[in-house]
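$ fold --in a.seq
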Amino acid sequence: MKPADVSISSASDDGFKASSVLSTLNEDGSRRWLTPRLSPGRFLHGRRIVAYLLIALFVTLPLVRLHGFPLVLLDIPARRFHIFGRTFYPTDTLLLAVLLVMVFLTIFWLTALFGRVWCGWACPQTVYMEFVFRPLERLFEGAPGRRAKGWLQTSGYGKILKLASYLLISFGLAHVFLAYFVSWDLLSQWVFGSPWKHPLGFFVVAFVTAAMMFNFGYFREQVCLVACPYGRFQSVMLDRHSIIVRYDRGRGEPRRGSTVALPILESGPKHGDCIDCHMCVTTCPTGIDIRNGLQMECIGCAQCIDACDAVMEKTHKPKGLIRYSSQAAMSGAKFKILRPRVVLYPAVLAALAGLFTIVLSGTSIADVTILRGPGQPFTALADGLVENNLRIKIINRTAAAADFTAEVQGVEGARIGDGSGKLRVDAGQIYAEPFPLFVPRGEIKHGKRDVFIIIRGPEQFERRIPFTALGPAGDHKQEEESEHKDGETREHERSDH
């Protein structure tokens, strides 16, 4: 399989000679500001519906609760990740790793099938830039080619109102974004409380707001061209049969000059259907000319398709001069839906999904770990018991507080703490506290004794965990006699004094 003909150049014929590096750079290295023209059409209408649904989903996910937790909450300080009713902890490393690999493989698979459909249709950068911030820019400053038509645009207040609306929306987006990492209750305290009571929270909100403002107000499309590496990876993820936005060179060339009147075009010499109107260039949000082939800057938004289809209607030509197609189809070869990478990706995804389901089904309402406590390994007490330090760690995966009990089995007379062994763990919390384990000294042979720690909880939960209790080595009767003789010696010494 050969990769698609990806190029990083983006030359156009609209008076701008493209940089060999980025479409947003002029020849002298200065920033080329893009103000793409909006091209209504079927793809723009579909993308707008998808965008507003995604925005609603983005705002809803951290607010809607399932089993007592938000649908998505990545609580990094508490090391808990609540995802669609399931709670993941650092002990779920395998599950999180499999889930992350599945996400990347899904992106690779969709790219092999449909190119950069994620970038043009679902990426948050594209969704908010093209359907929130740029519409506001057109509202307050006028659409490209039709600027300075009203009082708002000519008075200078339009730009001020645009920046104010940008700041307000960035402030709201910052809070929604932080709601994925901070509980909504805590975030509400940050919003309505005094900044002096939570200076760190205030700083985080201010920083994220400023980052949003910088991104959508200044950096804009350069996120896709400079910061995001996905465009540079697409050449190795595509093949000749991937569906991407393409210009039909065989049908469009040689181009007809846009300075020629349309009625003359119909009776003039034979030319291609492209009239060189540059509508596909002026409407591109990254400023490229799709007629030069697939380029790194292309995000697959299909604005050039809508623009070209409108021109084809006016010139009474069939639509589709620019369309979603594959390199193989454009060259006249037969399109193949079944290719090695298209079959391999879903096969690996199915295997990982099965592994994820098996591991996930094996998780219970709680995770229990028994660790040896810090300090000396044991302490021989005067009442004939040997004390070992335990550290019982219980992760409560349920949405309600749960009561657990801990007891010892395998040794008569052994106990944990005062013998009750009652533990209460709040919902979604991690309980990790030290407990003393008492074992009769006579039960310890050769310096150790194997016991079982039994942890019981709600819903017939039970874990039987082996543990090795440590103690004095050697025969305990000889040790008792030696200690008795040492005591008598000390008594004699005190009487002599």
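$ fold --in b.seq
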Amino acid sequence: MEPKWLSWAKQLQSIAQAGLAYSKDKYDIERFQQIRDLSAEILNEYTGICKEKIKNLFCNETGYQTPKVDIRGVVFKDDKILLVKESIDDRWSIPGGWAEVNLSVKENIVKELKEETGLNVVPKRLIAVLDRSKHNHPVSPYGIYKIFVLCDLINGEFEKNIETEDSGFFALSELPPLSMDRVTKEQIAMCFEAQFSDGFETVFD
């Protein structure tokens, strides 16, 4: 579970963002801006990230605040799961990333797998829709839903790209160092269960 200070900061930011979008009174707008600034100060105090960067990342949206969507394509071969080595931190994760607004979940999965692994896949089954804050990830200023989709591998081979350095298939007992911002060992274990356990049902928070 995320710390209370982060939950409070995110809630303040959400209230402020909606207020700034829909309020007409100039005094109310000023108050909502003060609330938004306060939420940024809370993050600055607890994380040490400079206020300007926090405002650019955390206070950069307009309108009613909604969660971001992170999609992950789960592929197995020879009883092992496909992972990619992320260029940003040299650690491994299930391939995927932010969903694009003009693509469906399936289309996003196909696109991300092709870009990050060079593989062609067919999305087959929804494994889980998880609230990132409830699953032992490092803290994030955003509300994020993580979608895991089981895919069939068609063909292709890894091509180095700007996002990933390498790819490979791994047994659950032999996982490399994981990119914890993107995936946890428990989530990978969930994917193994979805692939190999009869009667697995979609998990959602």
